[in-house]
Amino acid sequence: MPGFGRHCFEFVGKEPLAFLVVATLLFVNTFLLLLLPLAGKYLLPKHIPSTVQWYEDNSVAIQFVLLALLAAVLIIFRKRVHYSVRK
Question: Of residues 46 and 67, which shows the higher confidence score?
Fold first, then answer.
């Protein structure tokens, strides 16, 4: 779980598979979102494919949907999420 400061949330036991999948998709989407301007400038041809154009138009919305899914997973598994304060 994220949180390297004094306050952190962590799962009791093993992380649910849904959390790992959504966190991985969120990481990949963030990487692609940041890579897209560089790829558009240097790697992609002048006429980009329609799927890349669709992704460029909807990548921020996809990011918010993945964040909402991550929050939903944490709410669904709230009994297994533990709040701890580190010293």
Answer: 67
Instruction: Decide if 25 contacts 66 (C-beta within 8 A).
Output: yes
Q: Is 19:77 a contact under the CB 8 Å cutoff? A: yes
Each residue's pLDDT tens digit, 20-62? 999 999 999 999 999 988 887 888 777 888 998 899 999 999 9
Total-model pTM? 0.80
Q: What is the DSSP string of 42-70?
A: IIS-SS--HHHHHHHHHHHHHHHHHHHHH
Is residue 13 in a domain? yes
**Domain count of the fold of the chain:** 1
Residue-number span of the structural domain to which 49 is assigned: 7-85
39-45-47 Cα angle (round to 5) = 115
Q: Name the CA radius of gyration of the chain, rounded.
A: 17
